[in-house]
Amino acid sequence: MSDKSVKDKITQVSFHGSARLDPRLKLIMLITLGCTSFFINGDVPELLLMLGVTVFICAGSAPGWGIRMLVIYIVISYLNTCLKYIPIPVVSLLMGIFGVTIIKAIPVISFGRWVMKSTYMDELAVALERAGLPRSVIIPFVVMFRYIPTLGIEYRMIRNTMKIRGVCDSFIKIFFHPFSTIEYILIPLLMRCLKVSDELAASGTTRGMERSNRRYSILEVGFGVGEYLAIVIMVLFVVTLFVLERTSIGQYVLWRQI
Which domain range does residue 151 map to? Predict the structure, then answer.
């Protein structure tokens, strides 16, 4: 096998398009998205924001996840608008607040999960180090970044074990025994959290996370034409949303017409 083919095998990645942007830019976009989502108002600007997030995710090797979250967003937005016309004194108010919170959080959750799935930990560590962050910040952040998806895997394993043993394996049992269900899930999950944290710490040690030398990445990490173009598009998109919010389009109740 030639050196070129070996290099091609090593640098072969599963993500393409927008998923190959610099990890620092992804984090900046995530923070900008969170601020924009919670400060912007109006059905049309919020829907355009979610559409922009969906297009960006679909361009980053995750079309299924982006479209699924867009459908969920549309359904919840429509149901939340319908609740405004159902006069139940306390329930309507509480459900309206809860619905608005979910609507604001869906774009952030969608983009955040995509960032975690499409970012390699080695690239993230190198990018944060080049950003000038101290090692005492980089190591906990990278471990946390890797730890969050692991919790989902552990939760699914616990739920599968509960189903095999017939413990709260149906919606009826979960509904009538909520505290037992929480106990059966939380205690094993906490024990697994302790074990997984030790495993991640050992993994980081074997990868040389504690070394004081400068880290390098086989894959290219840095700002190029694509990153600067993404920044320009992001700024123009956010400014357009806030301008639309202050026009008659921003006051248009979209879901009432469906």
Answer: 134-210
Side chain identity, residue 237: F
- CA 65 to CA 147: how far, in whole Å? 20
pLDDT tens figures, 138-185: 878 887 887 777 788 888 888 888 777 777 656 676 677 777 777 777
Mark residue 120 as left, alpha or beta (left: phi above 0; alpha: psi -120 to 50; beta: remaining). Answer: beta
DSSP 240: H
Residues 113 and 72 in one domain: yes
Instruction: Say if residue 192 is in the same domain as residue 228.
Output: no
Instruction: Give the span between the Cα atoms of 150 and 147, in whole angstroms.
Output: 5
CB 40 within 8 A of CB 46: yes
d(CA 47, CA 241): 10
Q: Please state whether the predicted TM-score (pTM) of the whole model is above 0.85.
A: no
At residue 62, the 3 state secondary structure works out as coil
Neighbours of 244 (CB within 10 A): 17
